[in-house]
């Protein structure tokens, strides 16, 4: 049996911090952007474009693995070389699952916005922001905790991450 993929937990926190900032910007843009009447107008609003891009990053990260996230690549190339080696590595499966949760939440926001639900985008981006903020600032990953809960309940099989 192969060993599960391991990641530097500082990279996961960096990724969450960048994501939290971008989600906060999305929320602010969503609040000042108002509710557009036509589908075309909603699809070009800056908050929608940013949330759709973040959703794409979440989808990519959950499918390809957190080590291939654009912010993780930035961390590995620019920041990690300037730091001491990590005290310990962590299993990549829980953060990868958490990226899937982020993908789900942001895609719901994208769908609600396109459907014309007032502030659906803001609500979804706010929920994702809270999770990213908790991980980035306090190192508490809600999606990782959900993954562990589902593994313990036998609803998700613990497997090696990509």
UniProtKB/TrEMBL annotation:
Question: Its domain of life?
Answer: Bacteria
The UniProt record lists the keyword Transmembrane: yes
Q: Which residues cross the membrane?
A: 12-36, 48-71, 92-115, 121-150
Lineage summary: Bacteria, Bacillati, Actinomycetota, Actinomycetes, Micrococcales
Enumerate the InterPro entries for this protein.
DUF4395
Protein name per UniProt: DUF4395 domain-containing protein
Keywords linked to the UniProt accession: Membrane, Transmembrane, Transmembrane helix
The segment(s) forming the DUF4395 domain are: 7-152
User: In the UniProt record, does the keyword Nucleus occur?
Assistant: no
């Amino acid at each position: 049996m192969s060993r599960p993929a391991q990641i530097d937990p500082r990279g996961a926190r960096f990724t969450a911090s960048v994501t939290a900032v971008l989600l906060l910007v999305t929320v602010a843009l969503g609040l000042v952007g108002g509710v557009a009447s036509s589908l075309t107008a909603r699809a070009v609003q800056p908050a929608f474009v940013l949330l759709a891009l973040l959703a794409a990053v979440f989808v990519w990260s959950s499918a390809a693995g957190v080590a291939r996230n654009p912010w993780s690549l930035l961390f590995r190339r620019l920041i990690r070389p300037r730091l001491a080696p990590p005290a310990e590595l962590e299993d990549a499966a829980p953060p990868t699952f958490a990226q899937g949760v982020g993908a789900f939440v942001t895609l719901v926001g994208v769908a609600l916005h396109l459907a014309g639900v007032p502030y659906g985008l803001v609500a979804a981006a706010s929920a994702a922001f809270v999770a990213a903020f908790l991980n980035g600032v306090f190192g508490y990953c809600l999606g990782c905790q959900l993954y562990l809960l589902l593994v313990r309940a036998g609803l998700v099989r613990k497997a090696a991450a990509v």
